[in-house]
Write a structure and sequence with these properties.
The chain has about 450 residues and is α/β, with parallel strands linked by helices. The chain is built from eleven helices and 18 strands. The longest helix has 17 residues, at about 155-170. InterPro entries: 4pyrrol_Mease, 4pyrrol_Methylase_sf, 4pyrrole_Mease_sub1, 4pyrrole_Mease_sub2, CobA/CysG_C, NAD(P)-bd_dom_sf, Siro_Cobalamin_biosynth, Sirohaem_synth.
């Protein structure tokens, strides 16, 4: 296994042994920016190799009579050059690296022979023993690249790579550089959308940012289980905003983010769902920028779509709905500060998803019926989405107030209005095993 960033050096392990008669593999990272690379073949193997080469920003030429649709889509924007024919001697002229990935061993052998003659390293996909280079299983963690050679067993290499990258992401494999002392280091803020609650549903970048943080400012709807794995020296600040209850003022949160970052700390603002979906994320970005603090936004999986999906409810369905709208229900219809046009929402034929709308649900349901939605319109209420206590109840607009009372529905809950609620009611098996409650 070899790990490192550009410019890294290293000595071979004292326990390294030759890998058969060809000798041990010498791990090296190729810098292919603007260098010509030729891939012979246009199938799935070539597709996968091209993806990595384009990430390295190589100038890729694909030689093949046919290519996958995904490769063809890269031709028009100029991401790669496609020679729509069979391989011919001389196709490797000017190349720094070559890949032989056809389903014809004879063609692959010819490509490898030309590469050998021209002193061009060549990966032959069908015959590892005849390749002058072996491609490792690779993974990335920021600017850190992990490459693993599995001693001839690609599945072994993949398993080890995945374990290392997962450990770097969740912090169980320490990255010394990412945990360096704050002294003399410029601070920054990363605004992370944590998803609907299950720690497994945060993005890879979001989890990486949490693992590297010096300070985490977290909401109560964020995936709090991630905080348990943080080192003791990481400062965790509770910035919860409880419905109709205790909450930290937004101005105080903004000040915390700015002050910790100006002190040289890596600060993560960990929020539930997506930070820009009723999350006041832009207010925090503006506060950071006004103070000269660099800020990165990591989008999250919004509960408006994820929670219904986890209950087996799609927000759109072909032939049934061509639109869906997400509405904040924290203010009831008619409230002087409400910005929602409830009559217009009621006239829509598609799906309505209501967030933060448990207490106001009776008033919202009445407004939707008053302005045109049928009282029999299906409604599903999903509580504690993505957690072990997730529960779904199904009712109608007319029956919603009584159902909420009878089932003792509490926040956090997402409710969905529309015909999509009636689709595949058995798909959304709640983690706690609670059956849907028809009303």
């Amino acid at each position: 296994m070899a790990t490192g960033t550009a410019g890294d050096g290293g000595e071979p392990s004292a326990t390294a042994r030759p890998a058969g008669p060809g000798g041990a593999v010498y791990p090296v990272g190729l810098r292919l920016l603007d260098r010509r690379v030729v891939v012979v073949g246009g199938g799935q193997v070539a597709h996968r190799r091209v993806a990595g080469l384009l990430e390295a920003r190589a100038r890729v030429t694909v030689v093949s009579p046919e290519v996958t649709p995904a490769l063809e889509a890269l031709v028009a924007p100029g991401s790669l050059t496609w020679l729509r024919r069979r391989y011919e001697p001389g196709d490797l002229d000017g190349a720094w690296y070559a890949v032989a990935a056809t389903d014809d061993p004879g063609v692959n052998a010819a490509v490898a022979a030309e590469a050998e003659s021209a002193r061009i390293f060549c990966a032959r996909a069908d015959d590892r023993a005849s390749s002058s280079v072996w491609t490792p299983a690779t993974g990335r963690h920021g600017d850190l690249v992990v490459g693993v050679h599995g001693g001839g067993d690609p599945q072994r290499a993949i398993a080890v790579r995945d374990a290392v990258v997962t450990g770097l992401t969740d912090g169980t494999v320490p990255d010394r550089i990412s945990r360096e002392a704050a002294a003399g280091r410029a601070g920054a803020v990363v605004l992370v959308g944590g998803g609907p609650g299950d720690p497994a549903l945060i993005t890879v970048r979001g989890r990486q940012a949490v693992a590297q943080a010096d300070v985490v400012v977290a909401d109560h709807l964020a995936p709090l289980a991630l905080l348990a794995s943080l080192p003791e020296d990481v400062e965790v600040i509770d910035a919860s905003k409880l419905p109709r209850g205790r909450s930290m003022a937004q101005e105080q949160i903004n000040e915390l983010l700015v002050s910790r970052a100006l002190a040289g700390k890596r600060v993560v603002r960990l929020k539930g769902g997506d930070p820009f979906v009723f999350g006041r994320g832009m207010e925090e970005v503006e506060a950071c920028l006004a103070a000269g603090v660099p800020v990165e936004v990591v989008p999250g999986v919004t509960s408006a779509i994820a929670v219904p999906a986890l209950a087996g409810i799609p927000v759109t369905h072909r032939g049934m709905t061509h639109e869906f709208v997400v509405v904040s229900g924290h203010l009831p219809p008619g409230h002087p500060q409400s910005l929602v046009d409830w009559p217009a929402i009621a006239r829509l034929r598609g799906t309505v998803v209501v967030l933060m709308g448990v207490d106001t649900a009776p008033a919202i349901a009445a407004a939707l019926v008053e302005h045109g939605r049928a009282p029999s319109t299906p409604v599903a209420v999903v509580s504690d989405g993505s957690t072990p206590t997730q529960r779904t109840v199904r009712t109608t607009l007319a029956g919603l107030p009584a159902t909420l009372a009878a089932e003792d529905i509490r926040p956090p809950s997402v409710w969905v209005v529309g015909d999509v609620v009636s689709l595949a009611p058995g798909l959304g098996a709640d983690p706690a095993g609670t059956a849907d409650t028809p009303r």
